[in-house]
Amino acid sequence: MANIKEIARIAGVSVTTVSRVLNNHPYVSKDKRTAVLKTIEQLNYTRNMNAVHLITGRTGAVAVILPMINSFYFSVVMDGLAQAALMAQYRLILCQTNYVPEEELKVLNMLRNKEIDGVVIVSTALKPEMIEPYCAYGPIVTCQNSGERPYSSVYIEHYAAFRHGLDYLHSKGHRKIGYCEGRENGSSASIRQSAFQDFLAEKGLPFDPEWMIFDCVREEDGAEVARRLLDMRSRPEAMIISGDHVAAGLIIEARKHGLSIPEELAVMGFDNQPIGRLLEITTIDNQLYQMGSAAFEIVHKHIHGSSLPVTRKLEYRIIERSTV
Amino acid sequence: MANIKEIARIAGVSVTTVSRVLNNHPYVSKDKRTAVLKTIEQLNYTRNMNAVHLITGRTGAVAVILPMINSFYFSVVMDGLAQAALMAQYRLILCQTNYVPEEELKVLNMLRNKEIDGVVIVSTALKPEMIEPYCAYGPIVTCQNSGERPYSSVYIEHYAAFRHGLDYLHSKGHRKIGYCEGRENGSSASIRQSAFQDFLAEKGLPFDPEWMIFDCVREEDGAEVARRLLDMRSRPEAMIISGDHVAAGLIIEARKHGLSIPEELAVMGFDNQPIGRLLEITTIDNQLYQMGSAAFEIVHKHIHGSSLPVTRKLEYRIIERSTV
Prior knowledge:
2 copies of one chain form a homodimer. By secondary structure, the first copy, chain A, is of the alpha/beta class. In chain A, 46% of the residues lie in helices and 15% in strands. Chain A folds into 3 domains: 4-47, 434 Repressor (Amino-terminal Domain), CATH 1.10.260.40; 59-157 and 288-316, Response regulator (Rossmann fold), CATH 3.40.50; 159-285, 3-Layer(aba) Sandwich (Rossmann fold), CATH 3.40.50. Chain A has helices at residues 4-11, 15-22, 30-43, 49-56, 72-87, 101-112, 128-131, 158-171, 187-203, 219-231, 244-256, 274-278, 288-303; strands at 61-66, 91-96, 118-121, 140-142, 152-156, 177-180, 212-213, 238-241, 266-268, 283-285, 311-314, 317-319. In chain A, the strands form 3 sheets. Chain A has a 6-stranded parallel β-sheet with strand order 2-1-3-4-5-11, with helices on both faces. A 4-stranded parallel β-sheet of chain A has the order 7-6-8-9, sandwiched between helices. Chain A is elongated. Chains A and B meet through helix 4, strand 1, helix 5, strand 2 and helix 6 of A and helix 4, strand 1, helix 5, strand 2 and helix 6 of B. Chains A, B: This is LacI family transcriptional regulator. Chains A, B: Keywords: DNA-binding, Transcription, Transcription regulation. Chains A, B: Residues 2-56 form the HTH lacI-type domain. Chains A, B: InterPro entries: HTH_LacI, LacI/GalR-like_sensor, Lambda_DNA-bd_dom_sf, Peripla_BP_I.
């Protein structure tokens, strides 16, 4: 492949002139510019962008850490990120880590090695104290409240949002309340568990460990929950479920067995997913798309010089439909 | 930041020795290696990976072109790609292009500029003749049959798969068959349309333009189709629907209005999605996850020297459930 010296020699100009033309520098005569561009075309010259990145110190790329892309939650957040990145003409490196800490650290080391300009952590197995040292190498934005940490975040208050949902169930007269969650030890999941248990304790409501069910991620998991509920001697009157897909599975399976919803079992979803609209599931909208786009906007501002960490809280709201 | 010369000076060794240590070259004495590593630690030296990429000519990254990530189809393919990339310790650059040709060409130009080692095109608005010139710059794999083109592909035969589904409906006695599709002009969609029209013509079945409905992408679109069908004077007896999400929307809405499925309307889905399992939708499994993982494996082999284009055809099969 032709290099810049060769182009200068063939075009009969200096290396500086070629460099100026490549970088759209104004102080080049029209004749020389034409000569350089013609030569470039003749030689089918392409710039090695790695050299450009080395010189400019920027790569135009941001890495995104998430456990899996094939889930409604993460693909909506990724959609928001990707649209904002496209607008800013930035590239996203998708790092699907399956929550393996070593893989997540590798991504943070890309920041250290200047392979990327910033990192967005949508969800991670890493503790904040493991993330913090990497702030020295470039901007990091997480989708969980970073509090006093030196990196930025955009988040919803899972505790308040979940309590809001529980209050709503309570206001509709429900006292025996069950709960479906994804990963038992996930950081947002842990916050929701606290909200659930605090709420029951404060209101003096019964807590039955059988009514708190983990590892509910897909529609089928919801269907399995429905079958378990139907087999219980003492069943909750209402369920709060993190994820409308899981709620959809529960509702479809429960109705198949003749259980009427909301009369015999009220169901409150979470995430405001399209399947929830279709089945008229009462749910909590938590602005997942906006979380992705805001996370990108914040990392992009940091890349372009804004240095103070930002914590942006997103709103949530209950969408009343017909399952509570 | 410290550079390699500074490390050599402080460690009291040559630049060559530092370089050998950084690249795990065997011919370095233990003492010198220790001195270099200690100095690196002292100086908190990090390699600029752009320099490494410039020297090695490889970036360890593959770009993925797709229109949107927030769709079941694309997120499953991406999942397959991401798992295979993680195994190979490669990074994926997600290029969500919204089918804008200029954006797609920018990604192909990244190959030209050596910013990436290869490209996987999951779905594109570009014609094959626009893709072909970029094969000169590195490996390209598409998820549509590339035929005699000089790049690789992994694909399902949409024509045969769709006809197989139509044959199945026909074998169950259905003669008035309707069809729901996504983008009217999508390349796979166009193939399925031909399959549909050829099938009707060959079997001498009635074709009613009202029964061929486009722009069906989400659950709600399926629900809208159900309402349209209910309003028709003459309704099809069976629908073939590209995408189980759309089929789910149709089925739920149709049942809400008292239409019994499959007795009054048979429904055949496509893609074998989780919602289809839950609603017991008869569908065609087309191995989307395998498409992603195979596409990555092929591009990875090309990066490591295999130069002949590969076309890999994936199997499809009907999954009999209860909606036909």
